Amino acid sequence: RSAAREEEEEEEAAGEESIDAADAAADDDARRSRREAAATATARVEDVVATLSDVLLNVARCHLKLSASRAGGSSAAHACVAACTASLSLRRNVAALYLRGRARTILCQFKRAGEDLMAALEVHKRRRIAADGERRRGGGGDAGDAETSPAAATTNDDDDDDDD
Question: What is the pTM of this model?
């Protein structure tokens, strides 16, 4: 009789262990699923931030172009500075620093323009050095992309203002 009882207790313990293992596996799956969902949400947020920053840069480019015309004047240059500052609040990028520096030059804010342009140059240099190092290691790296090149901050039609 005691052997039968011992056997029953062993079966119960084995059953509880398998339930515990199943619960642990389910908990692991739930944690993994939450991590994957968080990673996906983070990637989406990063995409939205990058897109918004790019849109703000396009707005800044438009205002800078308008500020060069008689119609736009200083109000467009102020709007360019505001759009660049908003873009920089989302992510630091060479184009926003460069465009803001150009707009501040139009506004005769030469000290602040110089600070922005020097910061753009420093960021550009650091990224170029990093890209060169990556290329040497065989990773490819592109030092001349739109985000890292101050010259890419403006459109090609900036030079046609003299044609009037």
Answer: 0.64
